[in-house]
Design goal:
There is one protein chain. The chain is α/β, with parallel strands linked by helices. The chain contains twelve helices and ten strands. The two termini are 27 Å apart.
């Protein structure tokens, strides 16, 4: 597909695809069109058997500096209800394959919320995270008040949401919002390295493991353990399970086919 606001590479490395947000003059502000393109790209890559892991990134100055305020400033409550912009975010949440965010510069508002939709986050030393919506008379609407406390705890989430202040990559790492910090010049190299460590595994097991971890945020421990156990048993119906265990027993590398 031809996209206007994103760039897509299906094979930035074997089994690894890349989506790059591409509105540099607007600091990758997340307008409706861009988010729709991200949704469609993720759906396409999710259906592509040649892709096992997806990376989302911006540019060195900004991952995404928030929603496109110009697109919303003159809307009323009914307009926003009819636009239903968050249905796009619901579709992004349904992506089965692991998603890694590679973040430099600003990840603010919707940008921070998009980061939290990803499964792992590699950040450069320049990355800054925040939910500054309160400063323009609104509040986070794409999960910021729900995902942020689960990621960093109540105290820091309240501070970020109620003051609108940004936090550094170092504080984000200490709080558990991101996985690692790397120099700007090696951000993509280190992100691809993480993606490769995932992509060498069974794609079916990757999807079921991701699904199980995400369920832990929605279910009780008892329900979560039941869900985990069911997925564990289901993997014994796959060829990848047979191949993986045979490779371990015979001390060789497995050749997973996603079957």
């Amino acid at each position: 597909m031809n996209y206007e606001y994103i760039l897509v590479k299906e094979q930035v490395a074997p089994y690894i695809a890349l989506i790059q947000l591409n509105r540099p003059k607007e600091l990758n502000a997340l307008n409706l069109q861009l988010m729709g393109e991200v949704r469609e790209a993720l759906k396409s890559l999710d259906d592509n058997d040649a892709v096992r892991v997806i990376i989302i990134t911006g540019n060195e100055r900004a991952f995404a500096a928030g929603a496109d305020i110009k697109q919303m400033s003159d809307k009323n409550a009914i307009d926003m209800l009819k636009i239903d912009q968050f249905s796009t975010w619901d579709q992004i949440k349904k992506t089965k394959k692991p998603i890694i965010a590679a973040v430099s510069g600003f990840a603010l508002g919707g940008g921070c919320e998009l980061v939290m939709h990803c499964d792992c986050v590699v950040a450069s030393e320049t990355a800054q995270f925040g939910q500054p919506e309160i400063k323009i008379g609104v509040m986070p609407g794409a999960g910021g008040t729900q995902r942020l406390p689960r990621a960093v705890g109540k105290a820091l989430a309240m501070e970020m949401v109620l003051t609108g202040d940004f936090i550094s990559a170092e504080r984000a790492l200490a709080a558990g919002l991101i996985n690692k910090i790397v120099p700007v010049e090696v951000l993509m190299e280190e992100t691809i390295r993480m993606a490769k460590a995932m992509a060498k595994n069974s794609p079916i097991a990757l999807q079921m493991a991701k699904e199980s971890v995400l369920k832990s945020f929605e279910n009780s421990l008892t329900e979560g353990l039941y869900f985990e156990r069911k997925n564990f048993y289901m993997l014994f119906a796959t060829e990848d399970q047979k191949e993986g265990m045979a490779a371990f027993v015979n001390k060789r590398k497995p050749d997973f086919k996603g079957r």
